[in-house]
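Throughout our pipeline, every protein is held as a single compact record rather than as scattered files. Such a record has a labelled line for the sequence and another for the backbone structure tokens. This encoding replaces a full spatial description with a residue-level series of whole-number codes. For reference, a complete record is included directly beneath this paragraph.
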Amino acid sequence: MTSVRRLLAKYSISPTKRLGQHFLIDRGIMMAVIRAAEVNSRDTVVEVGPGLGEMTMLLASRAKRVIAIEVDESMVALLKDRLAEYDNIVLHRGDALKFDFLGESRKWGKKLKVVSNLPYNISTQILFHLVEMREAFSAMTLMFQREVAERIVAVPGGRQYGVLSVLAQLYCDALIRCIVSPSSFYPRPKVESALVGFTFLQEPRVKIEDEAMFRRVVKASFGHRRKTLKNALKNGCFFKGEPGEIEVHLRAAGIDPTRRGETLTLEEFASLTLVMSKGMASRDTSMEGNSGNRPKSTKAKGQGSTQGPPR
């Protein structure tokens, strides 16, 4: 612990809550992470938030190359010095949420493995971004706060089941590999952490014709957890037509309108998305047809609606 503090002091670094910095300092846990990720000499590994570079060096000793992404400029200076002797580490100064993982995968001609102790404050945003870029990856092994990890693997009907559960499980098999004590980090967090392994599926777990619409339906369904689905979707501004329109579509999907979002399976969300997509498309087509049948205005060009007869 003294050596960690001394190292940070040397570079005038103070871990910040703003960046969610809790550096993994337990070498035993680092080795467990690497074993869980099954890193080998053929792998190109991405590490988001390399921290003090301890796990980065362990990864570099096993992988073909490591791409380390760090947003904190003061940490980059430390990492450049500590990682200088490794010719298979590529250090990027930048925001992982803006990083082109697909381009990086194409650059090296293979899919990437992600192995990271994610910054607490943006771990869910990073996960969503990684899932969106899933074509770039073969697998991911990521450290989260335990509560976040449990939400990722939650099943329908539970309090923890939500948007994160649905969108992660749509594209991945996810498994909590181990629980990690706060004492494994500096500064010590107030909560436990958990290591989650992700394996990407060849195809989404259920067939989705419109992925953007699926995400919209899921987010609206969980937007007001205490509300029934018909009210949650109404608040999600899906339909502005007849008052009972949402209920009609829920029943068409075989879903009781009085259920809540946390009870729906992936299959039910997919069915609901399909029905609602068709319903919205049909309504839009009908509205366009009606607008085409409106009588044309007989106003003379240049005359406003408040003009009187010409003098």
About this structure: Residues 2-200 form a domain with the Rossmann fold fold (CATH 3.40.50.150). Residues 298-311 have pLDDT under 50 and may be disordered. The longest strand covers residues 137-145. Residues 266-292 form the longest helix (27 residues).
